[in-house]
Amino acid sequence: QQQVKQSPQSLIVQKGGISIINCAYENTAFDYFPWYQQFPGKGPALLIAIRPDVSEKKEGRFTISFNKSAKQFSLHIMDSQPGDSATYFCAALTSFGNEKLTFGTGTRLTIIP
Amino acid sequence: GAVVSQHPSRVICKSGTSVKIECRSLDFQATTMFWYRQFPKKSLMLMATSNEGSKATYEQGVEKDKFLINHASLTLSTLTVTSAHPEDSSFYICSASPGAMVAADTQYFGPGTRLTVL
After folding, report:
1. Which run of H or of E encompasses B69?
2. Residues on chain B bordering chain A, Cβ-to-Cβ distance under 8 angstroms
3. Half-sphere exposure of A54 (CA within 13 A, CB side)
4. Per-residue pLDDT tens listing for chain A (113 residues)
5. Which residue of A has its CA nearest to B34?
């Protein structure tokens, strides 16, 4: 059962544009929502994360928007750069449950000049 | 930041042989380590969770006799793929957490190991 659904599967954005990746979850026990960035042949690296007590978190060019009632959260990359080209995974975790990350299916982002 | 290493980064082996992959936390003690498997262009699938000094907890559908996990110290966990077959070819990634209570912000990922079984 896919507990975290991610879209789109792939995304092409022009340099300087805004990249938006969406995720939806089913398990209301999830209380921590991180985003990971993965380059080819490398392990994922934590990019930014949010807890459901806030609706938005911004770190530099990266912003997470969180809608608890809709059980959705999204990653926005402002002023997208070629170096942002990577695969992005959303994830969810229950801090006081089994404490295991459940990953989305991933979005391959390509930033074109 | 905390660093997790994996060795080897790539390994090619013949069908039927066993392969050991090491995961080390270089600058912190890892109470819990996780092993993931990732197929090309796919997401990470958790295989097992290991806590130092105790048996690993395997996810449903993961053969514990095929994927042996040892977390013998607070800085080292090993994954041994026994009697490897071509279908075991994959990208294996470990992550390590310094605390017994895991939160995503304290789960650090290794660079991965590409296993190819001929």
Report:
1. strand B67-73
2. 4, 6, 34, 41-44, 46, 49, 93, 95, 101-105, 107, 109-112, 114
3. 11
4. 558 999 999 999 999 999 999 999 999 989 889 999 999 989 999 899 999 999 999 999 999 999 999 999 999 999 999 999 999 999 998 876 566 889 999 999 999 99
5. A100
